[in-house]
Structures are given as C-alpha cells and as structure tokens.
Amino acid sequence: MKEENELFKIFPTGGCPSVTYVKKQDGRVENKLNDGLDDRGRLCLITGPSKSGKTTLYERVLAKRGLKAIPVGCNGSMSAEDIWREALEKAEFERTTSSETGEQKEASLGGKISSKLGWLVGVSGEASGGIKRGDTSSERKQRVVAKPSSAHLVDAMGESDCILVLEDFQYLQPAVQKVVFQQWKVLIDNSVSTIVVGTSHRASDIAKANSHLAGRICGVNIKQWNTEDLKEIIIKGSRYLGVALDAEIRKTIALESAGLPAITQEVCRELMKKLGVTKPVEERLDREIPIRWVYQVLYKVASTSYARILPRAYGRIVDPSWTGRGRTYDLILSSFALNPLAFSLSLPEVRRRLAEELPLRESPPADDDVSDMLNNLGEIQDEIGIALLDWNIHRQLVYITEPSFLFSLRWRKPKERPASSVDVFDQIMGDFSKKS
Ligand SMILES: Nc1ncnc2c1ncn2[C@@H]1O[C@H](COP(=O)(O)OP(=O)(O)OP(=O)(O)O)[C@@H](O)[C@H]1O
Ligand SMILES: [Mg+2]
C-alpha cells in the first residue's frame, strides 16, 4: 500500500506532480500566467477542458512566486454573495492559521463567519463596501455578514500573499456569472490580482462584454497537449523509476491520452503496477514489454476511472427517442473523435473531417441545422445532462470540454489494437442509424 502511494506521487492524477511535471509548450503557458500576475489588478482567466492541467498550472506558478491560492469552488446553487462569503471565510482562515497559535486556529476553524471577521475591525473602510469609519466593530461585522461583497475582499487580499481563485466558473448560473463579473470591478480598481478557472469560454465572453474589465483580463487558454509534451511525462517518470519504455509504447500512450496529462499519468502508473514496479529499481529494467499490455492498461483505466462519463453522455446520445437536433450534435461530436483527436475545431474543419470520414449512409449536417444546434447548445446539453461541447462565437470555434469522453469511447471495450477513426465514428453515428 505504501509503495503504491509512492507510485501515486510519481504519477499523480490529482494534485501537482513533482517528478513528472512538464512545462507545457516550453513553458509558454506558465509565462502567460506569470505575465498576468506581474501586473497587479489583473483578472487571469484560465480556460481549458476538464483534466487538462488548469489547477496544476496555477498551483505551480503561485508556489514559485511564494503566493498561496484561496480557491472557491463554484456550483449551480451559489449566488454572488455566497462566493464572496466563502472567499472571506477562507481568507480569514489563512490569516489566522499563518499568524496565530494552534489553539486559536482550532477556534477559528470551528467558528462562524460572524465570529471570524475580527480583522475587518481594523480596516481602513475606504474600499470595504458599506463599512464606515465611525462604525463600531460589531456594526462592521454585521454589515459584512449581512451582505458580503467583493469590496470586503479588497482588504482581505490586498496586501496579503493570497490570491483568490474562482474554480469551476462554468457551473454558476449565467445570471450569477454576470453579476460576479460586474462586482469584480472593485478588485481590479484596487489592484487585487485574481484568477478565474473554467472549462467553458463563457467566462471570457462575459468578461469581454463588461467594458470596465477591458484591458484588465489576461486570458490563459490551455490547449490540447501535444504528443511530445505527453511523452515527456512518460520519459521523466520511467527514467526516475529505472524502467525502459520503448518508443512504440511511449508513442501509443501519448497518442491515446486524448491530449490529457491526467490520462498519461494514470496509464503510466497502471503500467508500472503491471510490471511490478512500485518504486525506483536498483538495476535498470530493460526487458521487452509487449504492446498489448499497454492496450490492457488503457482499457483498465477507461473502464474504471473514466467509466462514469459514458452512461451519462453516451447513453443519452444513443437514445432512440432523441432525434432531430440530436443528429447534428452527434455529427459534430464525432468529428472530434476522428484522428487526430482535437480539442477545438472551426466549422470548416468540422466539415472537412466529416467529409473525409463520413460513411456513405450519412450526409453532412446542413448549415442551418449547425447554427440552430450551436445557438441551442445550452438547452441541448441540459437535456443530455453533461456539457461535452462549447461554442465560442468570437473565435468561431467549437471546443470539447470533456476530452476524456473521446478516450472512454475508444477504450470502453478490450482491444487488440487502438480503434480506428471509423470505429469510433461508428460508435456514435452507427448507433444513431438505429434511432429512426
Ligand atoms: N504540467 C503538468 N505536467 C505533468 N502532469 C500534469 C501537468 N498538469 C497536469 N498534469 C496531470 O494531470 C492531472 C490533472 O491536472 P489538473 O487537476 O491540474 O487538471 P484540471 O484541468 O484542473 O482538471 P479539472 O477540470 O478536473 O479541474 C494532474 O494531477 C497531473 O497528474
Ligand atoms: Mg482543477
């Protein structure tokens, strides 16, 4: 068990790796975020599909700068006030844990916001929404508890080494997203740097629509991982353990990871377990490893860690009662699954891919159907119960927000070799033909 933990540290699927950390695209993504943080008062907007390395990126960059993230996870039932309240609570907790004794830490952990915002008593009151200079300490607390706002955060974050990070922004209700960004102005005006993380491009659309945020946004988009960067994870980990993995194995794992470092990490970990290697070996392991072992591991990972996504999405997509707009959705989704896998495609690219691979029985989607589908994407995906696609009208690009869906499609059954494009296409569209 302990040894498996060591393997988990080398190839983690949650949290920041140390041995196998790779600076994606020669560090370009890190540099972009660092540039955003250099200029105080910027809102750094990290977008990228699920499991593409968004959290790892900011954790690494902040740690190198000696900063600490105050992460607030969003969900569909949160209001803007809930967000500021949670941020204030966490900021307060950071303050007390870094400056007080153990006993006081305990007390603050168990306390409620009303008893925890003692530090607000001493704030200047200039930026602290609703708080006046003459207020008594209990009046100040009451005001904050009754209506926590972004203004209160200025004092909490302003001079501290903490940065507010709003995680999973896409889960907030659209109306709440708008309000949150409107209220962000006070943070920007007071030079408080912040980070917003999300899988969809809606955040950048709203930010662009807010004139007071103009020029203060630093967009960091995590694009699909290229094969060479993914191979680097494999090389670093296997070298550290003292195991030789040949070029075909490295290439297969990297290509089959659907552009996601999390999949590469897990496949490597499972392969090492299969080889019986759970910690660095004394003598380099050079024996030949059959490629079918890699296929078995890919199947294992897809059918365990990524099994949940299929019944939710795939089950609905192949539902015979779901026709009409469903067919256009299926066609666009399947164009992502064709080789080489893609994270984002323009509509002409979607068309070109489909034209190349489309079996004769299917005709390409009509332009009107495509616009109709993209305009109604939110509604359609609410029906499916999962958002797999995202449409960015400014860039005129369709994105896949859950590339692991493509991975689980390819490896949901044991295979003697990787699936071809047509195999995968047929899994989505072939079943569609049974729907009429
Ligand atoms: N730069 C990197 N180098 C090596 N591995 C990485 C890197 N970034 C991410 N990973 C691997 O991918 C895993 C998932 O990354 P992370 O949690 O940062 O993704 P995410 O985009 O935040 O996912 P989610 O959408 O679930 O929040 C990490 O635990 C790590 O194993
Ligand atoms: Mg994350």
Characterize the structure shown.
The protein has about 425 residues and is α/β, with parallel strands linked by helices. The protein folds into 3 domains: about 40-225, 3-Layer(aba) Sandwich (Rossmann fold); about 230-305, Helicase, Ruva Protein, domain 3; about 310-435. The chain has 22 helices and 8 strands. The strands form 2 sheets. Strands 2-3-4-1-5 form a 5-stranded parallel sheet, with helices on both faces. It has a 3-stranded antiparallel sheet with strand order 6-8-7. Helix 4 packs parallel to helix 8 (about 150-155) and helix 17 (about 325-335) crosses helix 18 (about 345-355). It is globular, with a radius of gyration of 24 Å. The relative contact order is 0.12. Mean pLDDT is about 85; it is low at about 100-120 and about 120-130. Adenosine-5'-triphosphate (ATP) binds near residues 12, 21, 51, 199 and 265. Adenosine-5'-triphosphate (ATP) binds near residues 17 and 53.
CATH topology of the largest domain: the name is: Rossmann fold
Output the CATH class name of the largest domain.
Alpha Beta
Let me know the largest β-sheet.
5 strands, parallel
Topology, number of strands: 8
Give the structural class. Answer: alpha/beta
The ordered string of helix (H) and strand (E) elements is: HHEHEHHHHHEHHEHEHHHHHHEHHHEEHH
Query: What percent of residues are in strands?
Result: 5-15%
Distance between the termini: 51 Å
Strand-helix topology:
Blueprint: H1 2-10, H2 28-38, E1 43-47, H3 54-64, E2 68-73, H4 80-99, H5 102-110, H6 113-116, H7 137-146, H8 150-157, E3 162-167, H9 174-183, H10 185-189, E4 194-198, H11 202-209, E5 217-221, H12 227-241, H13 247-256, H14 261-274, H15 291-304, H16 309-317, H17 325-337, E6 344-346, H18 347-357, H19 367-375, H20 377-384, E7 389-392, E8 397-400, H21 404-410, H22 421-432
Parallel strand pairs: 1-4, 1-5, 2-3, 3-4
Antiparallel strand pairs: 6-8, 7-8
The structure holds adenosine-5'-triphosphate and magnesium ion.
